[in-house]
Design goal:
By secondary structure, this protein is mainly beta. Helix content is 0%, strand content 48%. Strands 2, 4, 5, 6, 9, 10 and 11 form a 7-stranded mixed beta sheet that branches. A 4-stranded antiparallel beta sheet has the order 1-3-8-7, with no helix packed on it. The radius of gyration is 14 Å and the shape is globular.
Length: 128
């Protein structure tokens, strides 16, 4: 089991930046691929970014590629999402998620069903 707590959300103007953080607790965090998802009312949960357990591989949704950067620090049990050049379409509740334990360095799941643990979410609102 992995417990996750997000922070860093808030209100930001279009074109600005935010950095989200997620703190994890549990016995096997260092072997869990991690991801960020977002959701708005009336839409399904959307994959944003994922990172393998070692941090050696990352994958991004097309909508955020080149603007967002995911990173992790296994020694500190944290994963972060740096969000730059934010637009109104980036508004939503952002969730940190942990996939099941893996020893495959390159595994970076993108489907919500492949993640087993979720944080409570943090609101990101982008204004014009």
């Amino acid at each position: 089991q992995v417990q996750l707590v997000e922070s860093g959300g808030g209100l930001v103007q279009a074109g600005g930046s935010l950095r989200l953080s997620c703190v994890a607790s549990g016995r096997t965090f260092s072997r869990n691929p991690m991801g960020w998802f977002r959701q708005v009312p009336g839409k399904v949960r959307e994959f944003v970014a994922g990172i393998s357990w070692s941090g050696g591989s990352s994958v991004y949704a097309d909508a955020v590629k080149g603007r967002f950067t995911i990173s992790r620090d296994n020694a500190k049990n944290t994963v972060s999402l740096q969000m730059n050049s934010l637009s109104l379409e980036d508004t939503g509740v952002y969730y940190c998620a942990a996939a099941r334990v893996s020893f495959v360095d390159s595994w970076t799941p993108v489907r919500w069903s492949e993640y087993a643990s979720w944080g409570q979410g943090t609101q990101v609102t982008v204004s014009s």
